[in-house]
Design a protein that fits this description.
The chain is elongated. The protein is built from 15 helices and no strands. The chain has three domains: about 110 residues, no CATH class; about 55 residues, no CATH class; about 80 residues, Chromosomal Replication Initiator Protein Dnaa, Chain: A. It is mainly alpha-helical. Helix content is about 55%, strand content about 0%. Helix 10 runs antiparallel to helix 12 and helix 13 crosses helix 14.
Length: about 260
C-alpha cells in the first residue's frame, strides 16, 4: 500500500500536476483509473459483433468474489480490483478510503526508505552505514533497483549479460535496417510505408525487436525511424521475438 501511494504521488512531487484534484485526472498513472475518473487504456473493448464480455466493470456495491463472466476480466482490471480490495469490498467506499490514503501521504515528501534497493533500503536509505561492508555486499544496495539484496544482484547480472551481448553485436540502427531490408527483399521506403503486407510487417517486427532488445536503442528511436507510434513498436517487438526465436537466427542479422 505504501509503495502504491508513493508511486502514484510521483507526478505531484515532480510538480507535473498542481494538486491532488489535478492528480485525480492525470492520465499517466493508474491513480485516475483506480478512482474511476479515466478509462484504463489497457482494458480491452469487446470485439464488434461479439456479445461475449471480455471484462466486467467493478460491481457498484461489491468488488469481491469474482464468478462467471467476471473471471474473464483483463489483468489491468483485476489489478485495479486488487488495489481497491485493500481498502473495502464496496467500490465507492474503497475509492474514498484509497484517495484519503493517498492524500495523507502528500506531506510525507520523499521517503528515503522507498528509495534505493537491497541493503540501502534496509538501512532506511542511509548509505553511510554501509561504508564498512565488503564491496560485494555494498553492490546489493544498488540505488537503481528497489528490492531485496538477492533480487538486486539478479537484476544487475541480467543487465550486465545484456550489455555484453550488445557490445558483441555493435551495429548502428542504419546498418541493422539495411540488413533486415536485404534479407526480406524490400526497400527502405516500403519498410516505413503504411503497407501491411505480411513481409513488410515481419520486417518491421524484426527491426523493432533487434534494435531495442539486442542493440539497446529506445522504442522512440525505432518509432521515429519507422514513422509509427511507440505502442506499435512495442507490438512489433513482441512479434519479432516470436519470429526470431533462437540465437542462430538472431546472429544471422547481427553478426
Amino acid at each position: 500500500m505504501e509503495l502504491i501511494r508513493y508511486i502514484h504521488l510521483n507526478p505531484l512531487r515532480a510538480r507535473l500536476v498542481e494538486d491532488l484534484k489535478a492528480l485525480d485526472k492525470y492520465s499517466w498513472t493508474g491513480h485516475s483509473t483506480i478512482l474511476g475518473k479515466r478509462k484504463n487504456p489497457l482494458i480491452p473493448e469487446p470485439s464488434k459483433g461479439n456479445n461475449k464480455k471480455i471484462f466486467t466493470p467493478l460491481n457498484p456495491t461489491n468488488v469481491g468474489h469474482l464468478t462467471g463472466a467476471q473471471s474473464e476480466i483483463s489483468l489491468a482490471e483485476k489489478t485495479m480490483q486488487d488495489v481497491l480490495l485493500l481498502f473495502s469490498s464496496k467500490t465507492r467506499e474503497a475509492r474514498g478510503r484509497y484517495r484519503q490514503f493517498v492524500k495523507n501521504g502528500i506531506d510525507q515528501g520523499k521517503r528515503l526508505e522507498l528509495q534505493g534497493g537491497g541493503l540501502v533500503r534496509s538501512a532506511g536509505g542511509n548509505k553511510a552505514g554501509l561504508l564498512g561492508r565488503k564491496k560485494e555486499e555494498r553492490d546489493k544496495g544498488d540505488e537503481r533497483v528497489l528490492g531485496s539484496g538477492d533480487f538486486v544482484m539478479n537484476v544487475i547480472k541480467e543487465v550486465n549479460e545484456l550489455l555484453d551481448e550488445r557490445v558483441e553485436f555493435n551495429l548502428t540502427l542504419d546498418e541493422l535496417v539495411s540488413r533486415v531490408c536485404s534479407r526480406f527483399g524490400i526497400m527502405f521506403d516500403e519498410l516505413v510505408s503504411k503497407n501491411r503486407r505480411r513481409r513488410l510487417s515481419q520486417a518491421r517486427a524484426a527491426v523493432s525487436y533487434l534494435a531495442v532488445d539486442k542493440l539497446g536503442y529506445t522504442g522512440e528511436d525505432v518509432a521515429r525511424l519507422l514513422k509509427v507510434s511507440g505502442r506499435s513498436v512495442s507490438n512489433c517487438r513482441e512479434r519479432g521475438k516470436i519470429l526470431l526465436d533462437n540465437k542462430e537466427t538472431i546472429s544471422e542479422y547481427l553478426l
